[in-house]
Amino acid sequence: MPYTFEEDDEVMQAYLAEYDLADPAVSTGQRTKILNLTASIRQAKRLDFDGRAKALSAIGNLERRLAEIRVFFPSEHEGYNRLIASHVTALAGLLQRAQEKFPADA
Protein backbone atom coordinates (compact mmCIF):
# COMPACT_ATOMS: atom_id res chain seq x y z
CA MET A 1 0.00 0.00 0.00
CA PRO A 2 1.57 3.32 -1.02
CA TYR A 3 2.22 5.98 1.57
CA THR A 4 -0.43 8.69 1.80
CA PHE A 5 0.68 12.08 3.07
CA GLU A 6 -1.00 13.09 6.30
CA GLU A 7 -0.98 16.73 7.34
CA ASP A 8 0.02 15.80 10.90
CA ASP A 9 3.03 13.69 9.89
CA GLU A 10 5.94 15.49 11.58
CA VAL A 11 8.61 14.26 9.17
CA MET A 12 6.67 15.42 6.14
CA GLN A 13 5.96 18.73 7.88
CA ALA A 14 9.71 19.13 8.24
CA TYR A 15 10.14 18.54 4.50
CA LEU A 16 7.38 21.05 3.80
CA ALA A 17 9.20 23.64 5.86
CA GLU A 18 12.77 22.87 4.76
CA TYR A 19 11.92 22.96 1.06
CA ASP A 20 9.15 25.59 1.32
CA LEU A 21 6.68 23.24 -0.34
CA ALA A 22 3.66 25.01 1.15
CA ASP A 23 4.43 27.90 -1.22
CA PRO A 24 1.49 28.51 -3.62
CA ALA A 25 3.95 28.07 -6.51
CA VAL A 26 3.92 24.34 -5.68
CA SER A 27 0.59 22.78 -6.62
CA THR A 28 -1.22 20.28 -4.42
CA GLY A 29 -0.47 17.55 -6.98
CA GLN A 30 3.23 18.37 -7.01
CA ARG A 31 3.37 18.50 -3.23
CA THR A 32 1.55 15.19 -2.82
CA LYS A 33 3.64 13.37 -5.45
CA ILE A 34 6.99 14.60 -4.16
CA LEU A 35 6.13 13.91 -0.50
CA ASN A 36 4.84 10.43 -1.32
CA LEU A 37 8.09 9.72 -3.15
CA THR A 38 10.06 11.21 -0.25
CA ALA A 39 8.37 8.80 2.15
CA SER A 40 8.99 5.84 -0.19
CA ILE A 41 12.69 6.68 -0.53
CA ARG A 42 13.00 7.05 3.25
CA GLN A 43 11.38 3.63 3.64
CA ALA A 44 13.67 2.05 1.01
CA LYS A 45 16.73 3.37 2.86
CA ARG A 46 15.62 1.43 5.94
CA LEU A 47 14.94 -1.83 4.10
CA ASP A 48 17.44 -4.64 4.00
CA PHE A 49 16.73 -6.19 0.62
CA ASP A 50 17.13 -9.96 0.48
CA GLY A 51 18.14 -10.26 -3.15
CA ARG A 52 19.63 -8.34 -6.05
CA ALA A 53 16.51 -8.57 -8.22
CA LYS A 54 14.25 -7.26 -5.45
CA ALA A 55 16.60 -4.41 -4.63
CA LEU A 56 17.07 -3.34 -8.24
CA SER A 57 13.34 -3.65 -8.92
CA ALA A 58 12.45 -1.46 -5.94
CA ILE A 59 15.06 1.15 -6.86
CA GLY A 60 13.95 1.07 -10.49
CA ASN A 61 10.38 1.70 -9.39
CA LEU A 62 11.47 4.71 -7.35
CA GLU A 63 13.52 6.01 -10.29
CA ARG A 64 10.48 5.71 -12.58
CA ARG A 65 8.33 7.59 -10.08
CA LEU A 66 10.94 10.35 -9.88
CA ALA A 67 11.11 10.54 -13.68
CA GLU A 68 7.30 10.86 -13.85
CA ILE A 69 7.40 13.69 -11.34
CA ARG A 70 10.08 15.48 -13.34
CA VAL A 71 8.11 15.13 -16.57
CA PHE A 72 4.48 15.51 -15.48
CA PHE A 73 4.86 17.73 -12.41
CA PRO A 74 7.68 20.16 -13.28
CA SER A 75 8.15 23.34 -11.29
CA GLU A 76 10.38 26.39 -11.24
CA HIS A 77 10.20 26.40 -7.43
CA GLU A 78 13.71 26.30 -5.96
CA GLY A 79 12.87 24.16 -2.93
CA TYR A 80 10.91 21.63 -5.00
CA ASN A 81 13.84 21.26 -7.39
CA ARG A 82 16.34 20.98 -4.51
CA LEU A 83 14.26 18.11 -3.10
CA ILE A 84 14.21 16.41 -6.50
CA ALA A 85 18.00 16.78 -6.70
CA SER A 86 18.36 15.25 -3.24
CA HIS A 87 16.19 12.32 -4.38
CA VAL A 88 18.46 11.76 -7.39
CA THR A 89 21.41 11.58 -4.99
CA ALA A 90 19.53 9.30 -2.57
CA LEU A 91 18.57 6.89 -5.36
CA ALA A 92 22.16 6.78 -6.60
CA GLY A 93 23.24 5.90 -3.06
CA LEU A 94 20.60 3.18 -2.80
CA LEU A 95 21.70 1.72 -6.13
CA GLN A 96 25.36 1.74 -5.08
CA ARG A 97 24.50 0.07 -1.77
CA ALA A 98 22.50 -2.63 -3.58
CA GLN A 99 25.29 -3.26 -6.08
CA GLU A 100 27.85 -3.55 -3.29
CA LYS A 101 25.64 -5.90 -1.31
CA PHE A 102 24.67 -7.98 -4.35
CA PRO A 103 27.53 -7.87 -6.88
CA ALA A 104 26.62 -8.99 -10.39
CA ASP A 105 27.63 -12.52 -11.32
CA ALA A 106 30.81 -12.67 -13.37
Description of the structure:
By secondary structure, this protein is an all-alpha fold. It is built from four helices and no strands. The mean pLDDT is 88.
Characteristics of this structure?
106 residues, mainly alpha
Biggest sheet record: none
Average pLDDT number? 88
Low-confidence runs of at least 5 consecutive residues: none
N-to-C SSE string, H for helix and E for strand: HHHH
Q: What is the overall silhouette? A: elongated
Distance between the termini: 36 Å
Total strands: 0
The percent range for strand residues is under 5%
Helix content: 55-70%
Which structural class is indicated by helix and strand composition? Answer: mainly alpha
- Note the total helix count: 4
Rg estimate, integer Å: 15 Å
Write the layout of secondary structure elements.
Blueprint: H1 10-18, H2 28-46, H3 52-72, H4 78-101
What's a concise summary of this model?
The protein has about 110 residues and is an all-alpha fold. It contains 4 helices and no strands.
